[in-house]
Amino acid sequence: MENRVPVFMSVLLPAQSIVYSFGVGEDISFDEELMKNGCEIYAYDPTPKSKVFVEKRQLPSSFHFNPFGLADYDGEAKFYLPENDEYVSCTTYNRWGYDENKKEPLVVEMKKLSTLMKENGHSRIDLLKIDIEGSEYAVIDDILKEKIDVAQICVEVHHRFSGIGVGKTKDMVRKLNANDYYIVAISDTREEYTFVRP
């Protein structure tokens, strides 16, 4: 959710709330706002520029960063750098369709949400923020399949990517609704959705 702070329900986030934030990029304004409220942030992004960005900043002990990607499996994945070298966001989709022999993708470590939670000793998450460039659909499916206890989900959708389409987003919303998650906010771009489970 680069350069845009998604809507979250602060009334549901008391101090010491556990927040998982996927897709740091070069913008942690979302995380900084939550840290002001005393939240613990577990941030993840395997993007090379993101790692450098975080390492250059003096961040409080409530910000925990690791360079892993989020997926519906534990293992490695090809990670495609943006077509424009000035951009930050990478993706597991070769959305630009470039020749891998000319611009070789990175290979990054991916982990399931349940794996990361186990590593951190968490049984539930108060807020989950996902901006993972098209991989959100498989991840949401995995979260629902494993019945992970998440109170609030902020997700940026990428149905504009070739090969994904708006049907994937509609299907994701239906699945979340069927699991008692309901939309409480949609951004003006209609690409960021906030879901809350009552």
Summed up:
This protein has 198 residues and is an alpha/beta fold. It is 24% helix and 25% strand. α4 packs parallel to α5.
Overall description:
The chain has one domain: Vaccinia Virus protein VP39 (Rossmann fold, 3-Layer(aba) Sandwich). It has 198 residues and is α/β, with parallel strands linked by helices. The N terminus is likely disordered. It has a 7-stranded mixed beta sheet with strand order 3-2-1-8-10-12-11, with helices on both faces. Helix content is 24%, strand content 25%. The longest helix is centred in the C-terminal third of the chain and has 13 residues. Strand 2, helix 2 and strand 3 form a beta-alpha-beta unit.
Helicity, in percent? 10-25%
The overall strand count is 12
- The fraction of residues in strands falls at 25-35%
Number of helices: 5
Major sheet: arrangement of strands = 3-2-1-8-10-12-11
Instruction: Specify the CATH class.
Output: Alpha Beta
Low-pLDDT runs of 5+ residues are 1-5
The largest β sheet comes out as: 7 strands, mixed
Question: How many angstroms does the end-to-end distance come to?
Answer: 24 Å
What sequence of helices (H) and strands (E) makes up the elements? EHEHEEEEHEEHEEHEE
The CATH fourth-level homologous superfamily: Vaccinia Virus protein VP39
Number of domains: 1
> What does the overall shape look like?
globular
The CATH topology is Rossmann fold
Proper CATH architecture: 3-Layer(aba) Sandwich
Rg calculated over all Cα atoms: 16 Å
Classification by helices and strands: alpha/beta
What do the pLDDT scores average to? 88
